[in-house]
Amino acid sequence: MIFELPLLILLLTTAAGALVVKDLVSAVFILGSYSFALSLVWALVGAVDVAFVEAVVGAGLGTVFFLLALFRTGEKDTRIHRVPVPRIALLGLPMLALLMLYGAGDLPVFNDPQAPAASHVSPVYLENSLEETKTPNVVTAILMDYRALDTLVETIVIFTAGIACALLLRGRGK
Amino acid sequence: MLELLQDWLQRPNFIVFVILFLWGFYIMMVHPNLVKKLIGLYILQTSVIFFLVAFSAKQGATVPVIETDSLPVDALRYANPLPHVLTVTAIVVQVATLGVSLALVSAAYRSFGSLDENELLEEVERAA
């Protein structure tokens, strides 16, 4: 709990940097540091697998993708004049914010062991997965044993994304 | 009113989620530069994942890796693994879609020579 608040502030600061900075290359690097701050927060709440994936795939691969795209295109943020903010953004976003903050009271308390999310299905997995799958890591057990078919379909999604990238970037060298 | 304020102070994670979600959404709507829009999209997506993972935390619980020397398993000692599984999948799919959209952006730049949304629209109209 001591580390949580400074990490959340770090998260907000890096996100603000990535969104505000004019130069796109620096914005992308700040976005990478945002990903690392995020993976620190997740490691703190006990989601180590998610933290690893975010650090490797989000901060590493995502930053590489952004940089590859930027080095092939114009690097500077070319906005010269301020654009008028659309009225739907001015009206809609504060209303959305109010709705979300109004609903905050009905959420279960975070970190509560008796919260609904922690008290119905997940104890079954926690209690039985070692016996049924012989895998100490419950996340791996669910991902690779109970939900292996979903993981297979996920690899199909990634394969499709790879094909789409290859088709879009075809003939670049000419 | 005071009660609502107390609700927010008890959930700093939720406040951070709301700020990141709306800020990313706002940049996606307003900013004319396509790469900046994608940065906003990335922050929006990670904020939702952050919100899901925040539900998995339990007071006094550790990472969901079972210690084999303390059986039978007490579920209260380990964090909820289900949001972790969902979000591991979501992060990978998110970066895959990010790659496709960046490829689209660079293809648009190759054809029309701009990353600015308004200039792109003008170019498309001129070409049509």
TrEMBL record, chain A:
Membrane topology annotation: Multi-pass membrane protein
MrpA C-terminal/MbhE domain residues: 115-170
Record InterPro entries: CPA3_Na-H_Antiporter_A (IPR050616), MrpA_C/MbhD (IPR025383), MrpA_C/MbhE (IPR046806), Nuo/plastoQ_OxRdtase_6_NuoJ (IPR042106)
GO cellular component annotations of the record: plasma membrane
Pfam families, per the entry: MbhD, MbhE
Localisation: Cell membrane
Predominant localisation class: membrane
Residues covered by the MrpA C-terminal/MbhD domain: 9-74
Residues passing through the membrane, by range: 41-71, 83-104, 151-169
Entry annotated with the keyword Iron: no
Keywords of the record: Cell membrane, Membrane, Transmembrane, Transmembrane helix, Transport
NCBIfam families in UniProt: PRK12504.1 (NF009159)
Protein name per its UniProtKB record: Multisubunit Na+/H+ antiporter, MnhB subunit
UniProtKB/TrEMBL annotation, chain B:
Principal subcellular localization: membrane
Gene3D superfamilies: 1.10.287.3510
InterPro entries recorded: CPA3_antiporter_subunitC, NUOK/Mnh_C1-like
Gene Ontology CC entries for this record: plasma membrane
Membrane-spanning segments: 12-29, 41-61, 81-105
Keyword Amino-acid biosynthesis (UniProt): no
Cellular localization per UniProt: Cell membrane
Superkingdom per UniProt: Bacteria
Keyword Magnesium: no
Keywords: Cell membrane, Membrane, Transmembrane, Transmembrane helix
Record's bilayer topology term: Multi-pass membrane protein
Family: Belongs to the CPA3 antiporters (TC 2.A.63) subunit C family.
Name of the protein this chain belongs to: Putative, Na(+) H(+) antiporter subunit C
Annotated organism of origin: Pseudohaliea rubra DSM 19751
